[in-house]
Amino acid sequence: xxxxxxxxxxxxxxxxxxxxxxxxxxxxxxxxxxxxxxxxxxxxxxxxxxxxxxxxxxxxxxxxxxxxxxxxxxxxxxxxxxxxxxxxxxxxxxxxxxxxxxxxxxxxxxxxxxxxxxxxxxxxxxxxxxxxxxxxxxxxxxxxxxxxxxxxxxxxxxxxxxxxxxxxxxxxxxxxxxxxxxxxxxxxxxxxxxxxxxxxxxxxxxxxxxxxxxxxxxxxxxxxxxxxxxxxxxxxxxxxxxxxxxxxxxxxxxxxxxxxxxxxxxxxxxxxxxxxxxxxxxxxxxxxxxxxxxxxxxxxxxxxxxxxxxxxxxxxxxxxxxxxxxxxxxxxxxxxxxxxxxxxxxxxxxxxxxxxxxxxxxxxxxxxxxxxxxxxxxxxxxxxxxxxxxxxxxxxxxxxxxxxxxxxxxxxxxxxxxxxxxxxxxxxxxxxxxxxxxxxxxxxxxxxxxxxxxxxxxxxxxxxxxxxxxxxxxxxxxxxxxxxxxxxxxxxxxxxxxxxxxxxxxxxxxxxxxxxxxxxxxxxxxxxxxxxxxxxxxxxxxxxxxxxxxxxxxxxxxxxxxxxxxxxxxxxxxxxxxxxxxxxxxxxxxxxxxxxxxxxxxxxxxxxxxxxxxxxxxxxxxxxxxxxxxxxxxxxxxxxxxxxxxxxxxxxxxxxxxxxxxxxxxxxxxxxxxxxxxxxxxxxxxxxxxxxxxxxxxxxxxxxxxxxxxxxxxxxxxxxxxxxxxxxxxxxxxxxxxxxxxxxxxxxxxxxxxxxxxxxxxxxxxxxxxxxxxxxxxxxxxxxxxxxxxxxxxxxxxxxxxxxxxxxxxxxxxxxxxxxxxxxxxxxxxxxxxxxxxxxxxxxxxxxxxxxxxxxxxxxxxxxxxxxxxxxxxxxxxxxxxxxxxxxxxxxxxxxxxxxxxxxxxxxxxxxxxxxxxxxxxxxxxxxxxxxx
Length: 933
Description:
Elements: H1 9-15, H2 37-46, H3 68-75, E1 83-89, H4 92-102, E2 116-119, E3 125-130, H5 132-139, E4 144-149, H6 180-193, E5 198-203, E6 223-228, H7 235-240, E7 242-248, H8 256-270, E8 283-289, H9 292-296, H10 349-352, H11 354-363, E9 369-375, E10 383-389, H12 396-417, H13 424-435, E11 444-450, H14 451-455, H15 463-468, E12 479-485, H16 500-521, E13 525-530, E14 536-539, E15 546-547, E16 571-579, E17 586-593, E18 597-605, E19 613-618, E20 624-629, E21 646-652, E22 657-665, E23 669-677, H17 685-688, E24 697-698, H18 702-708, E25 716-719, H19 721-725, E26 741-744, H20 753-764, E27 768-772, E28 795-800, E29 839-844, H21 846-851, E30 855-860, E31 863-871, E32 874-879, H22 903-913, E33 916-921, E34 924-929
Parallel strand pairs: 7-8, 7-9, 9-12, 10-11, 14-25, 14-26, 26-27, 27-32
Antiparallel strand pairs: 1-3, 1-4, 2-3, 5-6, 6-8, 10-12, 13-33, 15-24, 16-23, 17-22, 18-21, 18-23, 19-20, 19-22, 28-29, 30-31, 31-32, 33-34
């Protein structure tokens, strides 16, 4: 196996400033200091690297009550720095004297934590953020017993009875973000206090940053998973319960998930979680703190290559990979990623993605995972919260459960705030303070769609994509969703700041989200399809079947496979560069491709930090083939604001020669270029990734077989081309139909006049025809009513980057139940399609469609891809890109899906059939989509 390198130690060193530049020199500086180097680094971590070296003091404050650590912090931070200070007093009088000057009345509208807070017992104490001058003032007072450094959310964690008022303070009372180490200690306390309700698992560790203090390289961190339910240690009961899993801040710089989850977890343990408590007998809550490396990354004791963002949390892990791209998802696997499949993972994977491997291995032990929700954060967007429909194949029930929980979350947020106007002032203020952008307020509280619908890109290798796929393909079979929330990501020129007035809204929104997932987990739901008693036939063919036995490197099918192994060399070449702003604000990264290059993958991290500039990808001919406008994110009024700092680009069979990536930016941008070289059309995952190919046999017509299980009435039967040719659609020579609907999703039999004649007879007898994908080509062969005017030259199969429906007529019956945000009809990665231009769509010339009396519902690739033609009393509905066969020419070691419809795509098909989708909750009909025709 040949694989591109992750961050090696030498690369880390090259990416960071020198010790002097970083404010850390040799141990000689500590010789005459009251504090050693290890303590210095520990304190430096807690102050956000605001410390200076011993011998470079900025103040000279001393006093008997000060601990050595606290004295060092006060004297080695900038003049304006406010040290997190815990103070113990001799008596209440001393406390009251201090409070009279420093204590602030708690106010949820503050942009920071209050200057000081106090408590009376078990000893009089205060917690304050104090400058050096203020420390001097406090030391001159009577009754000061102790002054110590105490950073974190809980002000009392260093004192006696640290949890008298709880572990994770309410947002309005927190002194900072919840820290990794206080979380570990707090979880242990909850488990010891509530052993029948809380169980903590400590998984294998993260890759870990090199620790300059201890010399450990790496210094990994534990991954915590917490089960919460009544009778949590009853293994039989726990296994049988339906489970809702909350993944918290898999991107370490997106803190809203961890902040919400930690507080909900504690409330559940204590029996104080309103709206959740009645569920603990029936379901189990599972919380996973997925990315400890990203969480601790602002601690400067760790050696982290990140330039201007050195003082912030980190998106990925210490191996330099994005933690939400490394899971073993079915379908296309980008060769730039490290898919963490424990079954057969090469040894080096345990250096790069031990965190992902541990999560996969652990959660496969769980039964009955109903929902898995991965909480993220973005910058600004046109709604406060997006829910992203994950890239996993769902059947009719799963599709409706996914949609219903989205509907309920939106209703829950509206019920709480009664519209975005209720918090508009706080949002506008936060945008100004955090990003320097004025007059920003989202259009609404909540919206949802696919990843592309909301963020204008797609992914492979996500946690949610893995967890949502069927258990037989290594997943959990869960309904999986990605919530995204505004202001839960950092700006490039400052630390992520704790702002209680906006954090309270983020935590509230995500708590509403978590409640709705929990309630849906505990609820009996069902979804059906009402046909009005109509019977449907669909035509299947082996030409749509894709099997692992067809691949040249497998040995599953004698005569087709070439046996294990290949004679030709396969290589993966990887290049990583950080392009930093300079005098010209421009840098270029390049790589060479050859005639043997199978693919080129380019990944960008940090684009969300930029407010000006661009990125150009240029091919060997000098043509710009991809452009990113970095200034677009700066304007929240743009139609597609850049909500994240990650973007990717992929090209299958790139032209041979030099490819350049030019970055002109006012912020650091990390560029990763990965080239996969092989002469074979089908790359062997053993050679590239080290994994054996998982067996699969898939066909998109399985959609109709699956849908038939949900029919309230009528039937749905599959036939082959020769069955249609032999007259099975009609009842002998009577001219009467056996079926009311006919679906054809391919052009097998297109040149057979007898086949076409039988379809014409069916339509002339009043049968409705649904043509999808290359089946739309039948329009050029059929002689029925006005549709006969459409010639083969009016039809074309094109490749598009994403199978989106554009130029939509929302009054068209095909779009009944479709919302404006929804564009993507099917999600490509689990079918082997990439983020390059390779998704097929069969389209009709718009003028020809109009001339035939057609009514278009939308376009794809410049032609009509959804619409209706009339043929007497019959309808001919077309969907040019909805159920394509799988594409096998890319890496797909973990198998393929039969189909991958979005909720919008699912609704388009049901509407084309003229069926009504019905949704039930506890046996009661609560929602319908479409109508019976």
